[in-house]
Each structure stands twice: as C-alpha cells, then as structure tokens.
Amino acid sequence: MDLRPVVFADRPDLHEQANTIFSAGWPEFIFHDRIADRYLERVQAFFAHLSLLLLDADDQIAAGGWGVPVGWDGTIGDLPGGYDDALRQAVELREANGRADTMVIAAAQVRPDLQGQGLAALMLLHLADAGTRAGLTRVIAPVRPALKARYPLTPMARFMTWTGPDGAPLDPWLRTHHRMGARMLCAAERSMVMQGSVAEWEEWAGLPFPESGRYIVPGALAPVMIDREHDVGELVEANVWVQHR
Ligand SMILES: CC(C)(COP(=O)(O)OP(=O)(O)OC[C@H]1O[C@@H](n2cnc3c(N)ncnc32)[C@H](O)[C@@H]1OP(=O)(O)O)[C@@H](O)C(=O)NCCC(=O)NCCS
To answer: For this UniProt entry, which residues form the secretion signal (predicted)?
Structure first.
C-alpha cells in the first residue's frame, strides 16, 4: 500500500475522520487522565510538527501517531515517569525555552481494518524521522502493551519479560517494537493515572462498585482501586519504556 505522511495540523479537513477512527475501540476511562488533560492542548499547539497521519492514495487515514520532545541523558534514572510525565516535561521544557534532544513517541494507532500488516512500524519510522528533523537524536516510547489488559494482576515488570516460543516478547505491540530493533528499558510504573469519583468510575466501567476495594475492569492494565469513603476511584497504569535505535 502506498502511504504518505502528513502533519495532522496541516489537514483540518481530515480531523473529523481522524477523530472517528482514533476514538473507537478504547475503554472510556482512557479519556479521563487528568494530568494528560492539563497538557494536551499545549502539546498540540507547541509540537504540531510531531503529530502525523499516514494517508492512502484516496486521502483515507491508515494510521496516526504523535510525540513530544524531552531532555534525556540516556540513563534509566533520567527517564520521564511515563506518558503523563513525558507530556508535563515536554511542555515545561518548552515554556522554559529549554533544549530537548529526545523524541518520546506518545501514541500510535492503526485503522482497525488495517491492523496486523506492519503499518505500526511504518508509523513509528515516520514519527522518528519527524523527531530527527526537529533535532531529536534519541527515540523512546512508553508502550502500552496490547495484551496486558488480559493479565491485570501481573506486575508490568514481570509481564514485560514474558516471551513466546521464538524468544520475542509475548505481547504483540512490544513485539512490533522488538522487531524494529528497539530494546526494553524498564517498566514505567505510573505512566497514566485515571482518577474520578466512584460514580464516574461506575459509569466508565459500566459496573457498580458497591464496596471499597480492588476491581478488575475490562480493558484496564491493572485493578481499579475504589475508595467509597473518600469517593475516589483510581487506576494507575504502568507502561514499558523502550528505546529505538
Ligand atoms: C498496537 C497497534 C498500533 C499495532 O499496529 P499494527 O500495524 O497492527 O502492528 P503489526 O502489524 O506490527 O502487528 C503487531 C502484532 O499484533 C498482531 N495484531 C495486530 N492487530 C491485531 C488484531 N486486530 N488482532 C489480533 N492481532 C493483531 C499482529 O498479528 C502482529 O503479531 P505478530 O508479531 O505475531 O506478527 C494497533 O493494533 C492499534 O492501533 N491498536 C490500537 C491502539 C493502540 O493500542 N495503540 C498503542 C498504544 S498508543
């Protein structure tokens, strides 16, 4: 398939199509990360050049993805805490006129009917290229493993070590990165935090939570903690930091 990258902001005529494709298939709670919400508007304004679409010959969207620039010294200890923290660091660095050197690929998504054909790798390569053009010499990503929701009780630090018969990661999305030569660095334990009232969480999960405690919610990478006394529900999701070559 012949696909060409375009900057998302350059094609407002495709934003409705993008919204339909990219908001489908996610559990509702994923849209309620308050830390990310605080920064996303500025991310779009500051880093429009790092947000891309892949289009087919008929201007139909095949994939999309975006990233943010951070400063990183290459050590595990200096990595952002995860997805949320990468957005925060990128915005704060930019507002302080600091110099970024590392592209954090924050999200990549392939149109559902085109998944399983290797398009994600193409999307990641175009995002890495956009980073290179912006002077970002390293590429990292807090990967949200596709299969982890089926193992919500397993710590991410264990899950990320699981391999299939071929020795590659068991998780399909980690496998895509692995095939591209990326290496896993560590678990990002607090990558995304989704917090709301108990009523909000009941609505997002489509489940009543009659007592305080830990609940398994479809699509969540870890159990959701419900605290009825303080009227808080919280899901802390770990991701996996990978570094591309
Ligand atoms: C994760 C995602 C980007 C991967 O894109 P992709 O182009 O399908 O990736 P690949 O073609 O490299 O496929 C990777 C593996 O997943 C498998 N796979 C992909 N889509 C699949 C599907 N719908 N059902 C079952 N397996 C699937 C592929 O067979 C492949 O497995 P293999 O390693 O055994 O060959 C894509 O599935 C997606 O958009 N998912 C929803 C959004 C998301 O989770 N994004 C990541 C977090 S931001």
So the answer is: none
* Domain residue spans of the chain: 4-188+240-244
Q: For residue range 3-36, what is the model confidence (pLDDT) as tens digits? A: 999 999 999 999 999 999 999 889 999 999 999 9
**For the chain, first and last CA: distance in Å?**
25
164: CB partners within 8 A, 6+ apart: 170, 175
Q: What tens digit of pLDDT does each residue of 207-221 get?
A: 999 999 999 999 999
Q: Is the dihedral of CA 183, 174, 15, 40 positive or negative?
A: negative
- Average pLDDT in the 238-243 region? 98
CATH code linked to domain 4-188+240-244: 3.40.630.30
> How many degrees, rounded to 5, is the angle at CA 225 between CA 219 and CA 230?
135
Residue to substitute in 110, 124, 144, 191 for testing ligand 1 pocket (most ligand atoms within 8 angstroms of CB): 110
pLDDT digit string, tens, across residues 89-121: 999 999 999 999 999 999 999 999 999 999 999
Of the candidates 245, 152, 193, 143, which has an alpha carbon nearest to the alpha carbon of residue 38? 193
Residue 75 neighbours by CB under 8 Å, 6+ apart: none
Helices assigned H by DSSP within 96-211: 119-133, 156-159, 172-179, 198-205
Q: Is the CB of 164 under 6 A from ligand 1?
A: no
